[in-house]
Write a structure and sequence with these properties.
Layout (H helix, E strand, L loop, with lengths): L5 E7 L9 E4 L3 E6 L2 E6 L4 E11 L2 E8 L15 H100 L12 H21 L27 H17 L18 H14 L2 H14 L4 H13 L3 H14 L8 H17 L3 H14 L4 H19 L1
Antiparallel strand pairs: 1-6, 2-3, 3-4, 5-6
Helix pairs in contact: 1-5, 4-5, 4-6, 5-6, 6-7, 6-8, 7-8, 8-9, 9-10
Length: about 400
């Protein structure tokens, strides 16, 4: 049923399924191939291929071809054309169809690339926003920690100044009291008639003083007291004891406490004695850690380590803070430094060594370095073999390694 603007062509499929039909359509040529049948039409006039459509229904395929020029066609196909002309039309149609297919493929590839680029740009933008957000959060925590440290410093200075003022007042009061006590009160002069009574009273006082001196016992005679020290007993045999290692560890700790604090840097000149105490800073860091302010705790440990970089607990505690903030490489570095300082290995530092091994092992596992993490957990389990939590965690890591090797 043709019109002046469109042509409608219905091609029966003769029981052939739609997925076996091959259709080729251009502005001058139409082909429907479904073996063993072939429908081919060299159109009488050009059509708008981009606006035309083909609908496959049950048992037929319906073409709606939009004419390029509005006119009635006397025939559907070209009449009285020789074979060479039809062959040229067919080859030209195939070439046009191929070019359209290449263009569609290229457009599709460009669209995919644009979508990938959009996705990549969107992802990078989100990552940049997240990075800026994290940096702002860290800067806020640093500023808050610095403000708290500055407030604490001012409070310590005020406390020290107040204590100094109180001590000065106490010394001044004591000095005035001593000065007043050193003055002898002037006795009023007695009349001559009372001089005899005064002499009598003086004599009675001397007698009383002599009687009191007679009641005081004589000093004890000098002598010598012998002291016997109990020998130290170890639970293991003498050949298995670690007496030299323990003595070395004790000497090492004494040397750290006595001469390890740095006071030669210019930045420490304005700090009070309390502010130069690494132990006090360590306690502040532990309080910050319990409160969940891990960045403030790291700042306190940083200052303590600048004062004394030989205290293992400062590195171990800072490693725990880095674990909470997901600074895994820094946690591994601090745990390793703590283990270097916790030498020689003795019973006194066993707990600290176990804590450092667990922190480093956890950081390795978070980085998916399970073999290294297993080594640290096994070292911690060797220190405390009866620890049920360590046994369970070690077994989980071992199972993860075995599962990875199977896959």
């Amino acid at each position: 049923m043709p019109t002046d603007s469109a042509v409608f062509i219905s091609v029966p499929l003769k029981g052939t399924s739609a997925n076996k039909v091959d259709v080729l359509s251009t502005n001058e040529y139409l082909k429907v191939h479904f073996p063993p049948y072939l429908f081919e039409a060299f159109l009488f006039a050009p059509v708008e291929d981009d606006r035309s459509s083909a609908t496959i229904k049950k048992g037929e395929i319906l073409f709606t071809l939009q004419k390029r020029n509005k006119e009635m066609w006397p025939h559907l196909t070209v009449q009285n054309a020789d074979k060479e002309t039809l062959k040229d039309l067919r080859l030209r149609a195939i070439q046009v169809a191929h070019e359209k297919a290449v263009a569609r493929s290229k457009a599709k590839a460009e669209k995919v690339q644009e979508e990938k680029k959009y996705t990549r740009d969107k992802t990078m933008k989100l990552q940049d926003e997240e990075r800026v957000k994290i940096q702002l959060m860290k800067a806020g925590e640093r500023n808050m920690a610095a403000a708290e440290l500055e407030s604490w410093t001012i409070q310590q200075r005020a406390t020290k100044k107040e204590e100094g003022s109180q001590r000065k007042q106490a010394k001044e009061s004591e000095r005035m009291t001593e000065k007043q006590g050193s003055r002898k009160p002037e006795l009023p002069s007695l009349p001559k008639s009372s001089q005899t009574t005064r002499a009598a009273q003086h004599g009675l006082q001397n007698c009383s003083r002599k009687e009191k001196q007679a009641d005081v016992p004589a000093p004890r005679s000098s002598g010598t007291i012998k002291i016997h020290f109990t020998p130290r007993v170890f639970p293991t045999a003498l050949r298995e004891s670690r007496v030299p290692e323990e003595e070395e560890w004790l000497k090492k700790q004494a040397a750290i406490r006595c001469g390890g604090i740095r006071t030669d840097l210019h930045e420490f000149e304005d700090l009070s004695e309390e502010e130069r105490n690494p132990d006090l800073l360590k306690e502040k860091g532990e309080k910050y850690f319990v409160a969940g302010n891990y960045q403030a705790a790291i700042n306190a440990y940083d200052l303590a380590l600048r004062l004394n970089e030989k205290i293992p607990a400062l590195y171990s505690n800072r490693a725990a803070c880095h674990l909470k903030l997901r600074n895994l490489h820094k946690a591994i570095e601090d745990s390793s430094k703590a283990l270097e300082l916790l030498t020689p290995p003795v019973a006194d530092n066993a707990g600290a060594r176990m804590k450092a091994h667990v922190s480093r092992g956890t950081a390795f596992c978070e980085l998916e370095l399970y073999d290294e993490g297993l080594q640290d957990y096994q070292a911690a389990l060797k220190i405390d073999p009866d620890n049920n939590a360590l046994q369970a965690d070690t077994q989980k890591i071992r199972a993860t390694i075995q599962g990875s090797s199977k896959t």
